[in-house]
Amino acid sequence: MKQKLLKIILGTIFTSLLIIFTSCQKTPPGIVTIRSANSTWIQELFQTEIVNIGLEKLGYKIEKTKEIEYPAIYISLANGDLDYSVVYYEPQHNEFFENAGGSEKLEKVGKLTPDEIQRYEIDKKTADKYNINNLQQLKDPEIAKLFDSDGDGKANLVGCNPGWSCELIINHHLKAYELEDTVEHNQGQYEILLADAITRYQEGKPIIYYAYEPHWISTVFKPNEDVVSLEVPFTSLPKSMGNMSEKDTSLDGKNFGFRIIQQRIVANKKFLKNNLVAKRWFELVQIPVADMSEESLRIKEGEDQPEDILRHAQEWIKNNQQIYDSWLEKARQETDSLDISNNKK
Predict the structure, then answer these.
(1) Which among 60, 134, 142, 308 has most CB atoms closer than 10 A?
(2) Strands (E) located in 124-207
């Protein structure tokens, strides 16, 4: 009986100590917890991890990153359920931004991955044989039929996931260039559709697909070696993306029909106002397109688990330690300037 009582007492003491210890592990008062989200496109987790590691070094506590589709991310940010996300693709996400409350509730910051390129590509063998260099040439049923993969006589253009917003541009192009009767926009899981296109290419069959960088596709199909990019007859984009000229959609003198994308961080406006150090960090951190394409390939080759992505982010930081540390130092200077400002009051 005494032994049983002793066990109960010791158990009670242990439980009490555990509660006290656990309570000591809570976030100290004054430390801000940051909530972020990215889409199901796992490459964005790589970018988020790079940003979050810096935020931790700046003294913030980071909540586990959520996985949410694009339009909902903007709404959650506007409502204050999230603080920031790396998903702002300008100008393609302008409509998501405005529909969620625009600049009254949200703010776009920095250029996380600048100068992302979009275009239509076909295999070089077919391009050379039939002298194809412009998307509008697919208005010719005989040309379009070359890229028919399901037997209906129309070209099967590999498009992008519904909800990415690039599908809106592709559909707009098919209408603007009068291609709806000869070209079918295949939508679904982009990676799966591309895998089918790669198989067709390996079988010596013609392929046509929407491409963008950063992405592993540009490492598998080398531009001007395996594939060629098609120009468009003139610039035409959905009204929600603003008035664009040929200059806005051209690169190296060729009009590819898509605006060069700037991937930016989007954040809750009140959060940025109250966290100027985080805002300064968002303005500074930057990941080149080439590095993102390399990450995309590593993911494709099987290193696609969250722990893999975190390791990749840590490796990227180590490989870019000098500039990464300089960004951190500049962000910390924002703290110093705040302290000076507060002391003057």
Answers:
(1) 60
(2) 155-158, 183-186
In this model, does residue 23 exceed pLDDT 60?
no
Rounded-to-integer distance, Cα 127 and Cα 134, Å? 10
| pLDDT band at 336; cut points 50, 70, 90 | low
Q: Is the pTM of this model over 0.85?
A: no
Q: What is the number of structural domains in the chain? A: 2
Looking at residue 1, its amino acid is M
Q: Residue 46: CB partners within 8 Å, gap ≥ 6?
A: 292, 295, 299, 309, 312, 313, 316
64 occurs within a structural domain: yes
All residues at 6 or more sequence positions from 304 whose CB lies less than 8 Å from its CB, including other chains: 42
Range of the domain at 275: 29-115+262-344
Which tokens in the block code for residue 29?
């008062």
281-329 per-position pLDDT tens digit: 999 999 999 999 999 999 999 999 999 999 999 999 999 999 999 999 9
Q: Which two tokens stand for residue 272?
A: 């940025």
Of 104, 41, 49, 51, the C-alpha closest to 73 is 41
**Separation CA 64–CA 39 (nearest Å):** 14
DSSP bridge pairs for 227: 123, 223
